[in-house]
Design brief:
By secondary structure, this protein is α+β, with helices and mostly antiparallel strands. The chain is built from 3 helices and 16 strands. The chain is about 20% helix and about 35% strand. The protein is globular.
Length: about 190
């Protein structure tokens, strides 16, 4: 699972291995127009067609990878090169959705759970004590109106770094908010 925050500050997640057959590194990829790129990591399906690109970026993102991913209509996830920016236990809005509902029935329970979750996400996780939560609220038309991802920051010495909970945290994704939400719904079917 990978999670990221879009420009609308919504948290999104995507199962990178859904439909995947293999993962390759530094393999040249070709778009129908003839544009080429060599993503750091490419997720391939059973027909060896790309499902997603991952770029680990130290300074800047390759414009060619963005163009090829766009033409293939696949996501390109940007992961910052390992440093402190990778460890972000919380993404998204800080206020829980139920605070905006004036007649929420069990505010005391919700506040107690929120306090517990905030304490868990502030702690550095051991391999056996990971915490991760992804919340999304949609309007009647199915548009994301509020979402967040949060989880325990991983131990930097752990073999699971830079995952947070069970998710790899990306700096960004080439897909729009609407395209990201649609892709997750398609995976859930």
């Amino acid at each position: 699972m990978v999670t990221w925050q879009c420009e609308q500050l919504h948290a999104h997640s995507y199962d990178l291995l859904h439909g995947a057959q293999q993962v390759v590194g530094e393999k040249q990829q070709l778009a129908p127009s003839g544009k080429r790129c060599r993503p750091d990591i490419t997720i391939l399906d059973v027909g060896e067609e790309p499902l997603a690109f991952i770029e680990v970026v130290r300074t800047h993102l390759s414009d060619r990878a963005v163009a090829v991913a766009s033409e293939l209509d696949i996501p390109l996830f940007v992961i910052p090169a390992p440093d402190d920016k990778v460890v972000r236990p919380a993404l998204g809005a800080a206020a829980p959705w139920w605070e905006s509902v004036p007649d929420f029935p069990d505010r005391d329970f919700a506040q107690a759970f929120e306090s517990f979750a905030n304490r868990r996400s502030a702690e550095t996780a051991t391999e056996l004590e990971w915490f991760a939560e992804h919340e999304t609220i949609e309007d009647d038309d199915g548009n994301v109106v509020w979402s967040r991802f949060r989880g325990s920051a991983p131990d930097l010495e752990s073999m699971h770094y830079p995952a947070i909970g069970t998710a790899l945290v990306a700096d960004s994704c080439s897909w729009s908010c609407a395209r990201s939400a649609a892709a997750l719904k398609a995976q859930d079917r």
